[in-house]
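call fold target=N-acetyltransferase domain-containing protein
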Amino acid sequence: MTLPSPPITSEPYKVVPIHHHRELIDQCIALINSEWPRSYTARLWSLESSKETLPTSFVLTTTNGKDETIVLAHAKLSPIPADREAVFVESVVVTQERRGQGIGRLLMQEVEKHCFHKLHLKKIYLSTIDQEAFYAKLGYKLCSAINIFGSRPTLNKSTKKIWMSKIGNS
């Protein structure tokens, strides 16, 4: 499989943890809520829980002509209590007008670097409803549903979700 070519643009992109750039939280909340509406307070609580270990929320940003930072994408990484060597990518969203330009791929590459090289995790899990082809191009493989909420053996068996995983290079 070939990966899509990088976006054709001169814009500088940065992927940064939201806890280092709290001034971007309102933009991030608006982006996430454009895809999955929830209360401002719930989103704020989730983003403010971001830290160096887990959970961590990343944003992919660029600057406009006025040197203002613009949030183009977001990803949230959550711990899996039953598997300390793995992480669950809870959400990935790219602003509607920038989809199909390689933004999601850039964000996921940085997420993977963080998980595999900084946190030294062995596996990344995610679930998707409609982006299986996107994640497959990034090397994710279909897997069984996992328990992301605790150590009990009960699995999340949502019929809409497709579960995928990627193993890091050790």
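return ok
The chain has four helices and seven strands. The two ends are 22 Å apart (CA to CA).
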